[in-house]
Amino acid sequence: MKFASEFRDPTLAKSLIAAISAQADRLGARRERPVHIMEICGGHTHAIFRYGLDKLVHEGIEFIHGPGCPVCVLPMSRVDECIAIAERPEVIFTTFGDAMRVPGTRGSLLQAKARGADIRMVYSPLDALELARRNPGREVVFFGLGFETTTPSTALSIQQAAREDLRNFSVFCNHITVPEPIRALLGDPDMMLDGFIGPGHVSMVIGTHPYDFIPRDYGKPIVVAGFEPTDLLQSVLMVLTQIAEGRAEVENQYARVVPEHGNPVSLAAIADVYERRPSFEWRGLGEIDASGLRIRETYAAFDAERRFGVGYGAGRAPQPEPEGCACGAVMTGRIKPTACPQFGRGCTPEMPLGALMVSSEGACAAYWQYGGARGLAAE
Fold it and tell me: Residue 35: in which H helix or E strand, if any?
């Protein structure tokens, strides 16, 4: 119970909430003119709502939910390409579970599985490697998806496949990076952001320096945060303190886990296996320069895009969101999930219309799970 008693301690939480309120009062924050703090990571969004932090902090603090959910930002066209690969008779298509129900124009991977495609949920790309070893007559494809958190494990799996010359294994690479969409949001003149809560797990891999551009170029503070209630409360206080003192810096509240310069083994694997795409499409956000990764020529034998002739450069076209779906506006903090006309009506966890209702890190899923559905029913 040591971990829970330290990071969920009610006495400490109360003192942090009081300090946040005092700092917010000094800044003149109020409901009508709040301080806007974006939590970049979807895991932070869920923690905020799970513990009711949005209700506990000063009314002049407004949390803005950012695009830090990799499943949520996956464009519909990439889901369609997954299904096209998975429906080939020679393919065993493997994926993490939270990608199974993300809708494309032809339904989801789960629906494709129901139609007969051999799609299997795995917990690691190493599971996919083992399937390739056991099924030498089949093409085993792993759906490489996620931010810098999951990118190293996919890279290490590709390196292992190369060492074993496991030629029936390939990766459909959809790995993306955190800093570039944040730069895109900050370049939007309509965005009202005063500071950021930085992602903890991503920063464990890349360190804190990739965020230096946020205070340097845009004058906004960012605090890399852990995921427990007192982590987040302390991080909010650190952001407010920077604003009150007229500072804009990268600070690391999660120093017990996040090293300043990241994880050198992970970064080396990423650099060896991947290179930047010129641009990558984000669901609801459009094309963002240099925000996606692709497999280098050295490892071309393990690139599912080249093997099956899908993806960028293969005549693909962006697919529009379903009518009435406001995923893009929610992911960029322009509206709350309950303001989407489909929330709880045309889009529910059982029958999702948008990706934000599917993922375990999606903002709509957080609102639904931790009170949004009840709030909607009370309208």
Answer: strand 35-41
